[in-house]
Structures are given as C-alpha cells and as structure tokens.
C-alpha cells in the first residue's frame, strides 16, 4: 500500500505504519513523504497511490479538482507554526518580528507548500516582511537548515520542532493562531489497494491514531 503524506507527518505516520503492519500481517506500508504540492502533482499525473494526507485543504483541492479522490477528504488533525532556532536560542529570538533583523539567516518553506503559505499568512497578520536566505521545498528541509547550523532560524510546524528534540529550540508566536493548517486525508479513486487504504485511514482517525498524532504535537480537528 502506498501512502503519499506531507513531510510534517513523517514521524507520526511512520509509527502508525508500523502499527498497521502489526495489525495486518503481510501488508507493507510504503510512504512517500514530501511537500504536499509536489505529492498532489504526482497523484494527478497518475502516480500509483492509495491514500493522500495533505498539510492543507488547498493542496488537497488540486486532487479533488482532478477527480482523483474517492469520496470527500476529511480533516484528521491540525497543526500550527513555531519558530525553530539554534539550540539554546543564542540570538534570543522572541517573536516573528525578531526574524526580520538583517543579521539573522532565516529560512522559510516555499510558498507553494502549506508551511510556506501559512508562514506568509502569519507574516501578513503581523504586518511584517521577511526576506529569507532560502525557500525550501518542504518543512523538513527548512528545519534541517537550522539543525545543520546553515541558518539561524526557520518558520516550521511545532510538530517538527518537537520531533527535532534538542537539535533546535522552539519559539511560539501569537500570529501562528491566524495560520492554523487543517490536514485532510482521502482514499484515492484509482487506489490499487482500496480496502487496505481505507483501513489505514480508519487507524489514523481512531483513538489510537489520534493519540500518536497528538503526542507528536498535532491537535485534534
């Protein structure tokens, strides 16, 4: 079974995939994690996939508009942004405004992907303009720049800050409330393994699935 899922779901879906394989002996769950926009483009171009979990309704719409979804996608979690800084926050970043200082190397996700679109929304809400040193293809790439100390800060999801442990420090900011992302999931119309795909969606939405997701920092829909 092939599951296409937003990069920010990497840790929690990997855990759920292992649980699913235990419950369904003989079933292998193969994940394709990446930027939701490129995953959607792959699906609409005919890439074989059973399930799509996106980090925003907008990227899911590309799939439903192409009539590639089976039924109506449902929101299974929500996520909000946080600033990831170097461990110990040496630059003393305390707000989104602090990122606009010319001496800081800041990275953002590309505007085409949900984490980038959400960051732009938060910056607009704060009345701020920010020129990053780079735009990254997905949230994990943005976070990695800070982990590798190639950037001083990145605007990512709080789930990614949590997953990185002590490799980064997290700074919450109030404007993130204006840019909360809904994550929809759907079975795909041409799913080669529709029954198994539907069972995986049911696990994600179950109490056990939600427990894994909320432990990762997501919030219930």
Give structural notes.
Helices cover 37% and strands 24% of the residues. It has helices at 10-23, 36-44, 57-65, 114-126, 139-147, 158-164, 194-205, 207-215, and strands at residues 2-6, 30-34, 51-53, 69-79, 81-85, 106-109, 134-136, 153-157, 169-171, 181-188. Helix 2 (36-44) runs parallel beside helix 3 and helix 7 (194-205) packs across helix 8. The longest helix has 14 residues, at 10-23. A five-stranded mixed β-sheet has the order 2-1-3-10-4, with helices on both faces. A five-stranded mixed β-sheet has the order 7-6-8-5-9. Strand 1, helix 1 and strand 2 form a beta-alpha-beta unit. The model has no long low-confidence stretch (mean pLDDT 96). By secondary structure, it is α/β, with parallel strands linked by helices. It comes from Streptomyces violaceolatus. It holds the Pfam family SBP_bac_11. Keywords: Metal-binding, Signal. This is Molybdate ABC transporter substrate-binding protein. Belongs to the bacterial solute-binding protein ModA family.
What brief labels describe this structure?
single chain; 8 helices; five-stranded mixed beta sheet; 221 residues
Run of helices and strands: EHEHEHEEEHEHEHEEHH
End-to-end CA span: 25 Å
Broad shape: globular
Can you give the mean pLDDT? 96
Give the strand order, joined by hyphens, for the main sheet.
2-1-3-10-4
Q: In oligomeric terms, what are we looking at?
A: single chain
Helix content: 25-40%
Largest sheet: 5 strands, mixed
Question: What would you call the structural class?
Answer: alpha/beta
* Spans where pLDDT lies below 50 across 5 or more residues: none
Kindly estimate the percentage of residues that lie in beta strands according to DSSP: 15-25%
Continuous helix count: 8
Number of separate strands: 10
Rg calculated over all Cα atoms: 17 Å
């Amino acid at each position: 079974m092939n599951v296409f899922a937003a990069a920010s779901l990497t840790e929690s879906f990997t855990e759920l995939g292992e649980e699913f394989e235990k419950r369904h002996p003989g079933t292998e769950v193969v994940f394709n994690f990446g930027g939701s926009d490129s995953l959607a483009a792959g699906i609409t171009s005919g890439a074989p996939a059973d399930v799509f979990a996106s980090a925003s309704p907008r990227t899911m719409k590309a799939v439903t508009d192409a009539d590639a979804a089976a039924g109506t996608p449902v929101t299974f979690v929500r996520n909000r942004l946080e600033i990831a800084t170097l461990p110990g926050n040496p630059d003393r970043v305390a707000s989104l405004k602090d990122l606009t200082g010319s001496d800081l190397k800041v990275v953002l996700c590309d505007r085409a992907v949900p984490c980038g679109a959400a960051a732009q929304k938060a910056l607009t809400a704060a009345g701020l303009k920010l020129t990053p040193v780079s735009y990254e293809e997905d949230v994990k790439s943005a976070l990695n720049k800070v982990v590798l100390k190639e950037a001083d800060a990145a605007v990512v999801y709080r789930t990614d800050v949590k997953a990185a442990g002590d490799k980064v420090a997290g700074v919450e900011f109030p404007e993130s409330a204006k840019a909360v992302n809904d994550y929809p999931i759907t079975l795909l119309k041409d799913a080669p393994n529709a029954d198994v795909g539907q069972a995986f969606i049911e696990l994600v939405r179950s109490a056990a699935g939600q427990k894994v997701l909320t432990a990762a920092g997501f919030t219930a829909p």
